[in-house]
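My convention is simple: the sequence line spells out the residues, with the fold written below as integer tokens. I include a record here:
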Amino acid sequence: MTRVSVSTDLLQWAMERAGRSAKDLEPRFPKLARWLDGRERPTLKQLEEFARATHAPFGYFFLPQPPVEDVPIPDFRTIPGAAARRPSPDLLDTIYICQQRQEWYREYARITGERPFPFVGSVKITDDAVTVAADMGDALAFDLDERRQLSTWTDALRRFIEQADNLGVLVMVSGVVGSNNRRKLDPREFRGFALCDPLAPLVFINGADTRAGQMFTLAHELAHLWLGESALTDVEPRSAPTSAVEQWCNRVAAELLAPLDAVRAEYHAGEPIRDAMDRLARRFKVSTLVILRRIHDAGGISREQLRREYDVELDRLQHVSRARGGGDFYLTTAARVSRRFARALVSSTWEGRSSFTEAFGLLGFKKMSTFRELGQSVGVSV
């Protein structure tokens, strides 16, 4: 029986990285205490199982010391002067999965002769946020009158994602890592990220976040693509980030979703805040949280009132989400990988340019029946 000499520091690192304690893991690994104090070494099979349990790359256990893992894109969650947050395995794996999909789509776009998208990197942070938001709205066909005809702002979010997809953005919405429903993403760690590329611009939205939060995340990450920057963020409508880039993207996102001039025209001074929130949310088909931010921007409430009312409303929305079962309204496979990406991958596979093995790996499942169903759902079948 092959025993592996592995550093106890690496075992500790893997547990801390995954947020697991020895007590959590001992039922699955009865000899873990002996591994940690060096009295016994794990077998190769046991170490492989330990790597799976802690979501750690198996090869890392053969390093001389624990690696330093950094988020592979600019991290705007970090507060200047504060210690950088250690990224969780769930966050890292989600970014890596999206980077793999983006790399595949970039090559697909190159082979099929797609041209770079002119909106990527078309603006600068010194550009006026209101003007940029208006230009983004034109490019996305983001029409306020059309949105007002939709039944709910959840429908408006679905339409927003569709508009971004039509423009050329790979919009991926998921509350789990890949297709592993046991690895749920934590919106307290991140709400979304943008991976900038002129041929394959990508936005990931944390589907475990409230439905209210997802709308603002998409608008915010699109602003990063217009800047031509990749970014990892945890912003929300009421946040006041210290980063100038994040402040600018927040302003653009808020203006895109609910233009300030239109909010001022619709807002009634002296109206109870609860009534105003509900009425304007229905009017603009955005979340009440975004409306609160816009009422503040219009001078209707103070910064302190915004903080207080926002916390109350966020708590209410979270309770509503739990009462309805929580989760993401958009949890189909096509939404998790983006409809644009799914269409391209299914077409390429049926045409023989990509293997089924590659396609299943990128999609995160193994059944041919699921692949056929996915193709049908995005309009590609044989």
Summary: The first helix runs from residue 8 to 18. The chain has three domains: 8-62, 89-323, 333-377. The CA atoms of residues 69 and 214 lie 27 Å apart.
